[in-house]
Here is the input.
Amino acid sequence: MKNWKLGTKITLGITIIVIICMSLLYLTANKTMTGMMQESELNVMKNTLNAQASLLNEYVARQESILTAYTQAHTVWLCLIQRLHISMHGFSYDFTMCNSFNNGSCTIYNIT
Here is the structure.
């Protein structure tokens, strides 16, 4: 009977030590895995954001080059000068013939 009580105490002590060790192992592993998963997710989000930013930068650069080429085109320049000339001609006609900008009977050139 004395041996049975001693055996129970030893078994109970080993069980408590195993439970404590398993709990510490679980907490350590859980904390490490959580940290690794958070770091991985942050890296994925940063990579996605960098990819989107590079796509936007490429798009903006392309649109800027298109607009630059468009504004430097000689035909666009001639078209704008012609439009300005026609608009000024209509303005001077309206000013000299109608003596008012609000008179509805005047013709103003509208080129579209």
Q: What stands out?
A: Residues 79 and 85 are 10 Å apart (CA to CA). The radius of gyration is 42 Å. The chain has a mean pLDDT of 79. Helices lie at 2-72, 74-98.
